Amino acid sequence: MEVKVKVLIRRFISEYKQGKTKSDGRVIRKELAQGLLKIREYRKIFWERWLKINAWQSELGWILFEPYDEAGLNRFVDVYKEMCRDIGINVTEEPVEIVEISVPRDWLIKQLEKYLLELDSKIDEIRAKMQDIRNSKSISHYRVKLAFYQEAFRKCEEFLNKLKNVQEEG
């Protein structure tokens, strides 16, 4: 049996686009074009604060939860394009695209169970770090990170339960 899912396709520019490569003998250094570090940081925020809460990673790519924060995605794309324009990069195609595909339900369940194990491991890792830290700023950082991963885990479990409850049609 197949189910329809939405997959997020990414087409972000490389941080090294318009950059320079310098070589000093055996050492090769890449210098980023001015402004691309800001774009990389913004993209990182997107991964950490939007993508991992609105989608889960499979071998096909990032599969979106239903519903997902479409307004948040549109805001990210608009700011991303503006940042690119500000440093002279013309974005000719959308940086993200959402494609609806049909995939075997059992395969999708296995992929999601695998991702849940990865999230669970990350949650355990964060808890272990919190036990070792005495610095209050670091503890706050890890509390936020832990809550974030726990929320992602909860959403994945909900998605998995919905998948398991999909009945054969016909």
Structure description:
The protein has 170 residues and is an alpha+beta fold. It has one domain. The protein is 55% helix and 20% strand. It contains 4 helices and 6 strands, in the order E-E-E-H-E-E-H-E-H-H. The strands form 2 sheets. It has a 4-stranded antiparallel beta sheet with strand order 4-5-1-6. Strand 4 (55-57) and strand 5 (62-64) form a beta hairpin. Helix 1 packs antiparallel against helix 2 and helix 1 packs across helix 4. The longest helix has 30 residues, at 136-165. It is globular and about 60 Å long.
Quick structural overview:
Helices cover 55% and strands 20% of the residues.
Fraction of residues in β-strands: 15-25%
Q: Please work out how many helical segments DSSP would assign.
A: 4
Shape: globular
The count of strands amounts to 6
Q: Which stretches are low in confidence, meaning pLDDT under 50 for 5 or more residues running?
A: none
Query: What would the average pLDDT be, to the nearest integer?
Result: 86
Strand arrangement, largest sheet?
4-5-1-6
Provide key terms for this protein.
alpha+beta, two-stranded antiparallel ribbon, four-stranded antiparallel sheet, 170 residues
Q: How is the secondary structure organized here?
A:
Blueprint: E1 2-10, E2 20-24, E3 27-31, H1 36-54, E4 55-57, E5 62-64, H2 70-86, E6 96-104, H3 105-132, H4 136-165
Antiparallel strand pairs: 1-5, 1-6, 2-3, 4-5
Helix pairs in contact: 1-2, 1-4, 3-4
